[in-house]
Amino acid sequence: MHTLSFRQLADGLRSKQFSSQDLTRHFLGRIAALDSKLNSFITVTPEIALEQAKAADARLAAGKATALTGIPIAQKDIFCTRGVRTSCGSRMLDKFIAPYDATVVTKLHAEAGSVMLGKCNMDEFAMGSSNETSWYGQVKNPWDPTRVPGGSSGGSVAAVAAGLAPAATATDTGGSIRQPAALTNLTGIKPTYGRVSRFGMIAFASSLDQGGVVAHSAEDSALVLQAMAGFDPRDSTSVDRPVDDYLAGLDRPLDGLRIGLPREYFAEGLAPAIRTCIDEAIRELQKLGARTVELSLPHAPLSVPTYYVVAPAEASSNLARFDGVRYGHRSEEARTLEELYKKSRGEGFGPEVQRRIMIGTYVLSHGYYDAYYLQAQKVRKLIYEDFRKAFEQCDVVLGPTTTDVAFELGSKSDDPVSMYLNDIYTIAANLAGIPAMSLPCGFVRGLPVGLQLMGNFFEEGRLLNVAHRYQQATDWHTRRPPDPS
Amino acid sequence: MSLTADQVRQVAHLARLELKPEQVEHYASQLSRILDMVSELSKVDTQGVDPMAHPLAMNQRLRPDAVTEPDLRAEYQAHSPAVQDGLFLVPKVIE
Fold first, then answer.
1. ipTM of this complex prediction, to 2 decimal places
2. What span, in angstroms and rounded, lies between the C-alpha atoms of A458 and A214?
3. How confident is the model at residue A414 (pLDDT cuts 50, 70, 90)?
4. pTM
5. Which domains does chain A carry?
6. Distance separating alpha carbons of residues A350 and A331, to the nearest angstrom
7. Using the beta-carbon criterion (under 8 Å), do A346 and B37 form an inter-chain contact?
């Protein structure tokens, strides 16, 4: 049951091959048996899952089911879940029981009727590219347990890649959906900024954060995204615009599709073996009717430095709320109010979060604001303009998701700059606000390689369509790792 | 661009973070390397470019000034570190 697609799962539930309770027990059983080898979950919620499965079975019997009703899903532990610990991978929130549900949680479970299996591990406050900054320990890549699954949505991808959940929610501030999806042979999509509600999604960098999904195929991703997306009055940056029918557009032919190939994404730094896989994928898309357009995104190489001003600046403001007073970790040792703040934050945040808070505080501080923050916001505009011009020449932009395959655990964890360069191809889409996805396109030394597609604003449907047609013609996305032993 | 240990202590103070003394030098070298990487931005000609604060050129949406949320104070305070009579408790501020 854990290798079936969403469509097959929905068919199986309707034809009574299995009930949602059977399905849920099956996935809970796999989590119990296998997750000690991967550490992909922080909290498993079997009681909630079985209760939701029972309700889903009743809903299926009554003929009131949606495409997701009765299908289990895992939630990244950044989404607030009422009555369930929501840790964001941090000691700061180790005892935080969310008092409300994120809109994404309401939409997927209360409304669409999917079943919540539990909360997935992640880099602390979504800051990291390897899932090594989590307070709950590193997550192993199911393809090679000595390697990272990527981050920050490392638990989400490990769980889905290993068949512990059919799909999982994830979030992407600088690549946290696409980079881990690439490293674990999954399909992951970060929608346009404002497409998925951020209400109840713990904030990291508010002008960049966006929720999305990781799954095995574009079709599965389309089904989940369809249920997650939409206007939410509780998120002031949510966009009030109808959601396209992603499923209806999946099969559109690619004849005449113009694929932009930015030369900056194929320059020095890209491993030759990855390049070979990407070139092969381009040939496959050409066979499907697409044609390629060479173009330039001249400011894209400045994405990483721009991001490491903008994101820490926003993070330092967002994380000011963790003060040890109202919720979250509180130091036992403080004698004064200032000590309470400092000790609670010193104890509650790990080193990567502390680094980013300090960088953010520094670039926003008096005398440095113009040189760092304002300059970064101007370069961000230039990056945005590059994409605007690119989409006058092409329909989608294509490149690699990462420079190389998954790296070894511990190999970059004490070198922040080399860790940050992991996101060199993914960050630009967040800075511009456009949708982007990663999908499997081959293997190098037995490890998965991801192909990245970026689209114009609100063109999620187009990206999913291109990915789906590619997946109809190839079988990379169907490959799964052996169960961990 | 390199940060001194004193600058790191000052930034940590502004951010209300208590650092262990043995962490300060390590952070100083890591933060300096990050700022080195970021300093590439200073070479870019941005004359006449408007800073971009947000990906969507949208106006802040307003809503009617009406009460929409119920009083959930007790529920929200249920997992607060220290609460009494609906108030959050902190160490004594005024002697």
1. 0.95
2. 18
3. confident
4. 0.97
5. 6-251 (3.90.1300.10)
6. 14
7. no
